[in-house]
Structures are given as C-alpha cells and as structure tokens.
Write a structure and sequence with these properties.
Shape: globular
Radius of gyration: 20 Å
Helix content: 25-40%
Strand order of the largest sheet: 3-4-2-1-5-6-10-9
Order of helices and strands: EHEHEEEHEEEHHHHEHE
Strand content: 15-25%
Distance between the termini: 22 Å
Number of helices: 8
C-alpha cells in the first residue's frame, strides 16, 4: 500500500514528521493520540515529536492542521469535519487498546474517501501468550514482572481468574505486587481484552472488507489448547501474537 502523495490518518500513534514526510512522501499526516499516551510517550522527549495541535473536538477544517499534526482525542469521537478527508487510515500497536471497537471502525470508515484503505498491525492481542500487556512492575525484592519478559507463565491470564492468579502470585511475590498485577491484568482500561474471533466478528459487521491475517504465532501445547477452549467456550485461536488488517470500504 503506497503512501506517497496520500492524506493519512494515524490512529493511536504519532510517527515522526521526518519519517512520514521525507521517507513516505505523504501530502498530509494527522495523528490521533489519547492524551494519556501522548503525555507518557511524546511530551518532553529531547528532539522529540511534534507538539500536539490541540483537541480532536476542536478541528473544524482538515486544512487547518497543515501537512502534519498530532491531535488529542479518540477515533470514536472523530468530528464530521474530518469525514471523507483521508485516503488511508494507518495504525500500529493500537487496536488492542480500543474499547469501543465497532464504533471505532465506523469512524475510520467515515474518515476515508470512497476508495480509501485501512492498514493496521496490532499486538500482542489478549488471546496471545502475553496478551495481558502487564507493564513493568518491580516488587520489594527487586523481581521484575512484565509482559516483555518470562516472569509469568504464557497464557496465565487466560488460564486463571483474578482470585486464582492472586493466590498463585502470593507464592511468588509480596501482596502489594500481587494486587497490582491482578489489577493491570484484568481490570485496567489499558487494553480491550478481545480475542481473535472477536476482531473477526467486528470487522465482518463493519463497513470494511479485505484481509485480516494472523501474525507471529506461538505454539500452544495440545493439552493447554484443550484447557483454554474449555475455559473460554466459543474461542479456539490462541496462537497468534498479533493481527494485520488490510482493508477497503465495502461497495455501497
């Protein structure tokens, strides 16, 4: 999917201006970022990314955003001023964080021209072996728990319910850390906890058609596969770490 000369809406991220303008050659790149993510990952970075233009709700004219802008808000709240304003919706590592996923897809479709395209790659998804997205937590002994290391058994978030995990963690760490891990794993709003099949159903009900493919798979031992299917009736796909969507709008 070529981006040269295209007007692109990035959902849930803000690739650097130098990359999208000089390397991809886009005509316009507008990034929609949640404010909390922007503050953590963008603000105050030395030589960092562009300062936020303002709130998504304040956009009245896409031309006013110039050829590159970061706006703060949620794709679900896309204003009518941006309907039909983009050739491509682009997103990396964001879809697993969107809770109103059906509405988000509707708004992405609204943002596109009739021949527009959607590209997204997102991981790790909830049904994958580290899909809990646990942020780095260090306990009182200096032990580090994170979805980026092997501190927790694979698929543990799908193999246990919160009280079970808490009891198991008390054998590994202190109670404060155990409580934090259970909170982030099951109760925080950081991730949407959708399975592969859920994403497929949302896309099937959306204005998009195209290819949704599984990316980077982790082998599930047969006995664990059987257990996961029993614990989560109706779900059978647990090996993909991520998904890639390459879509276009359905013919009206």
């Amino acid at each position: 999917m070529g981006l040269s000369g295209k007007r692109v809406l990035e959902v849930g991220g803000s690739l650097p201006r130098e990359l999208v303008k000089d390397y991809y050659g886009v005509s316009q790149w507008v990034c929609i970022e949640q404010e909390e993510y922007y503050q953590v990952f963008n603000a105050g970075v030395p030589g960092g990314k562009a300062r936020a233009w303002g709130a998504l709700s304040d956009v009245q004219d896409p031309a006013a955003l110039g050829d590159y802008a970061v706006v703060l808000g949620s794709i679900e709240d896309l204003p009518p001023a941006l309907y039909g304003a983009f050739d491509v919706v682009f997103s990396v590592a964001a879809f697993e964080h969107i809770h109103k996923f059906g509405l988000a897809l509707e708004k992405m479709a609204a943002a596109l021209t009739p021949d527009g395209r959607l590209f997204s790659f997102f991981a790790p998804i909830w049904s994958s072996f580290r899909g809990h997205h646990l942020p780095e937590i260090t306990d009182s002994s200096g032990q580090v728990f994170s979805f980026k290391n092997d501190s927790l058994p694979p698929w543990i978030h799908l193999r246990m319910r919160p009280p079970q995990l808490y009891a198991w963690l008390l054998q590994q760490t202190d109670s404060q850390t155990a409580g934090q891990i259970v909170y982030y794993m099951y109760h925080s709003s950081l991730i949407n906890r959708l399975f592969v099949e859920d994403y497929a159903r949302y896309f099937a009900a959306s204005p998009f058609t195209g290819d949704l493919s599984c990316e980077y798979e982790q082998h599930v031992p047969p006995d664990l596969q059987q257990k996961l299917e029993a614990l989560h009736p109706g779900y059978k796909i647990f090996s993909p770490i991520g998904l890639q969507a390459v879509m276009r709008l359905r013919a009206s």
